[in-house]
Amino acid sequence: MYALIDGNNFYVSCERVFRPSLAGQPVIVLSNNDGCAIARSNEAKALGIAMGAPWFQIQQKLPDAGVVALSANFTLYGDMSNRMMAIAAGLGPEQEIYSIDESFIDLSAMGGDLVARSHRVRERILQWIGIPCGIGIGSTKTLAKLANHIAKTADRKPGSYPAELGRVCNLSALPQSDLDAVLAATELGEVWGIGRRIGAQLREAGLSSVLDVVRLDPAMVRGRWSVVLERTVRELQGQACVGFEDVAPAKKEIACTRSFGHPVTQLKELIEAVSQFASRAAEKLRAQGSHAAQVLAFIHTSPFRRQDKQYSRSVTVPLRRPTADTSLIVQAAVAAVKAAFKPGFNYSKAGVMLLDLQAGSVHQGELAFDEEGTDRSALMATVDRLNDRFGRGAVALASTGQSDGQRGWRMKQSLKTPEYTTRWADVPRVLA
DNA sequence: TCTGGGGTCCTAGGACCC
DNA sequence: TCTGGGGTCCTAGGACCC
Fold first, then answer.
1. What is the 3-state secondary structure (H, E, C) of A327-342?
2. Is residue A407 over pLDDT 60?
3. Nucleotides of B under 7 A from a protein CB
4. Closest nt to A305 (CA→C1')?
5. Cα–Cα distance measured from residue A101 to residue A250, given in angstroms and rounded to the nearest whole number
C-alpha cells in the first residue's frame, strides 16, 4: 500500500505563503527567461491558461484578466520542499521523494485508519508550512498517483467525484462498484505513464476512461504497444511493477542547459556560457560523488524563429580519464563547443551534459606521466565550500567571463521574488 | 520582440563478432 | 540459380515524467 502526497500548484503556493494578497488571484510562475507558465493557480487554470503557455501569448490573449506572473524562484521552492517533505515523511516508515513537490510513502506496515491519519498530516503541512496538499492512497504507485489526482480534482471541482474523496482519497477502500464508477469518470490521459501519444493511440482503439484501460489484457497490450504500457496496465490492476526507492540512485547523466536572454552570434559568448554550464554541472557531479568519462556540449538556434536559418549540433569529447575536476571538464566542453560552432547563426540555447558517470571511488590504476594527472580534488572541495558559503559563482574559472553584467546570453528574470527563507537580507520582517 | 530544464527507460537498427 | 545463424554492444530517437 502506498500514499502519494503532493503540493497543489506547488510553486504558486510557495509564493502565496509570503504574499498572502495573491490568494484568490490568477497567479502563474514562469520558466527561466520568463518564457512559459510552469505553475498555475486554480484561478489561472480557470482562465484557460495551459501548462507551458508562453507568457507573451498569455499577455496578448488576456490583457485585462489581472494575471500575476512571477519569475521562478527555485531557491525558495527547494527550501519549502525540504520542509514539506520532512513533515510528509511522518505519514509512514519509508519515503521516496519523487519530485520537488511529490513523495511516495510506503504504508504496507501501517495499521489503523489511513485516511484519518492522512488528513492529520495534510493539516499539519498546511498549518506549519502553508502549502495545501492532496493525498492519494492505492495498492500500487500508479494507483496512488491516480488517487492523488482524484483527491485534488474532487477538492477543486465539486461534483466531479464524491465529495468525501476530496483532499484525501483511498482507492483501495472503495467497494468494487464505486471504484468502477470513479475509474469510468476519469479520462485515461490522467494515468501516470499514459502521455499524449499513447493516449491518442488508445482513444483511436476506442478506449476513453481509465476503466477501459484497466480491463485490457496485459499480454495483448505488450504485443500491440510495449512492455512499458503493459506495466502501467498491471499496476492499475493492482499488481505492483514499479519499485519503491527510498534512497535516490545516483544520476546516470548530469546536465546544465539554458536558453539565452538574447540571440547569440559570437563564439566567444558561447564559450563563456558553456564554461559556466560545465562548471555548474561539475559541481552537481561532485555533490553526488561521481566522475564523468565524457562531456557533451550542444548549441542550437531557435526553432520558433522561422525566419532564421536553423542549425543544431552536439559534440561529445571523451576525457583522458574519468574526473570531477572543473578545469578538465570545462576544457572538454569548450573544445566541444568550438567544434560544434558554425558562424552566421542566431544561437538561442546551449548546454553541457556529463555522460558515462561512474562512482568517484573507483579508479583505473595507471602510471601518471603528465600534468593532467594532478589531483585537484582538495581544491575542488574548497571551491565548492566557498561557493556554498558566499554564493554561486563566488569562485569560478576566468573563462566563464567574470564581472560582465551585460552578457547577452544571461537569462531574463524580471519578476523574481526574494529568497525569503535562505538569505538573511530577504527574511520578511513582521511589524507589530 | 518574447516559447524551460532535467531526467529515465525502451526499442530498432547498424556494426561487429565467431 | 542458389549466399547462415546466433549473439553482443552501441547509438539515436521516441515516449514518458515533473
1. HHHHHHHHHHHHHHCC
2. yes
3. 1-11
4. B3
5. 20
**A198 beta carbon < 7 A from strand C?**
yes
Q: Which residues contact A330 (CB under 8 A, 6 or more apart)?
A: A275, A278, A279, A282, A397, A399
Identify the residue whose Cα has the smallest distance to the C1' of B9. Answer: A228
pLDDT at A402 over 70: no
- CA of A271 vs C1' of B16, distance in Å? 37
Please state whether strand C lies within 7 Å of residue A100 at its CB atom: yes
Q: How far is the CA of A192 from the C1' of C6 (A)?
A: 38
> Which nucleotide has the least CA–C1' distance to A99?
C18
Burial class (CB in 10 A: 0-12, 13-18, 19+), A255: middle
Q: CA A107 to CA A91: how far, in whole Å?
A: 8
* A58/A51 Cα distance (integer angstroms): 11
Grid cell in block for residue A360: 568517484
Burial of A395 (0-12, 13-18, 19+ CB in 10 A): middle
- Look at residue A125 in the predicted model and tell me its pLDDT: 98
* Set of cell numbers at residue A394: 563566488
Question: Is nucleic acid strand C under 7 Å from A235's C-beta?
Answer: no
pTM flag (> 0.85)? yes
Angle between helices A227-236 and A141-156 (to 10 degrees): 70
* Cβ of A278 less than 7 A from strand C: no
